[in-house]
């Protein structure tokens, strides 16, 4: 099923009250936003992108209001702010972490103060662009959460900045901290045949393979500015780490029609009720 058909079908199946809530959140102009010059997570409309992803989490990922959410690379709250309006105030919860202190501080002072079930922490993971003085290697990181502590994990526009060994570690750790049947919603750049050859591909993303792969870098001088992966690499990684792939939906960065820019994987941790 192509992306448009899938989204139409799932959107059509949303209960009317969920549809109303998502629309209401997308239109709410009173949600907090960081000052424009402190938004370090990319261009675009902070609020519109957050609302767009909330809709994807619900329609593509099956996010429920009662879920315990883990946000890997929570940045400066772009995903968290709309989630405050969606997750159930007593049953839902949210944990986010990021290596950039400024983002964590903005989230902690703006979001946690009003929504104590939303918590943020800095993990001092080294990253050439985001946290060059970090002391922890992402490839060896143990996430500071108990086994099976979450129902839904998101990794939006983070795998697009990680080397393969770090992504591998994160997927393994996320599998550990998700409960059986828990979901991982992950975005990435997948270098499939179309992405490698399409003329309509985003001109900023002239990916070239790094050696034998699986990584592709768009900027050899700053390899982690935009990382892509061989088609199949993420699929195998997810399966090896105990997930089944419920959805792999290719994004319009490669110049084909889609309702989202980056590629989206929704993976379900095995071991739940069939
Ligand atoms: C493009 S931003 C996306 C942020 C957020 N997910 C969003 O969509 O708004 C990439 C984020 O990944 C974070 N990051 C970089 N290296 C990381 C690492 N090793 N582990 C977790 N997050 C990392 C950055 O600090 C930044 O907040």
Order of helical and strand elements: HHHEHEHEEHEEHEEEHEE
Strand content: 15-25%
According to DSSP, the number of beta strands is: 11
CATH class: Alpha Beta
Tell me, rounded to a whole number, the average pLDDT: 94
Helix share bin: 25-40%
The CATH architecture assignment turns out to be: 3-Layer(aba) Sandwich
What is the CATH T-level topology?
A: Rossmann fold
Main β-sheet, spatial strand arrangement: 3-2-1-4-5-11-10
Number of helices: 8
Can you summarize the main beta sheet?
7 strands, mixed
Q: Which stretches of 5+ consecutive residues score pLDDT under 50?
A: 1-9
Structural class: alpha/beta
Could you say which small molecules are bound to this protein? Answer: S-adenosylmethionine
Cα-atom Rg, whole angstroms? 18 Å
Count of discrete structural domains: 1
| Principal-axes shape call | globular
User: CATH homologous superfamily, by name?
Assistant: Vaccinia Virus protein VP39
Summarize the structure.
The chain is an alpha/beta fold and 274 residues long. Helix content is 30%, strand content 21%. It has helices at 3-13, 16-27, 46-59, 80-86, 101-112, 164-177, 193-197, 233-240, and strands spanning 68-72, 93-98, 118-122, 150-155, 178-188, 190-191, 208-209, 215-217, 227-230, 243-249, 263-269.
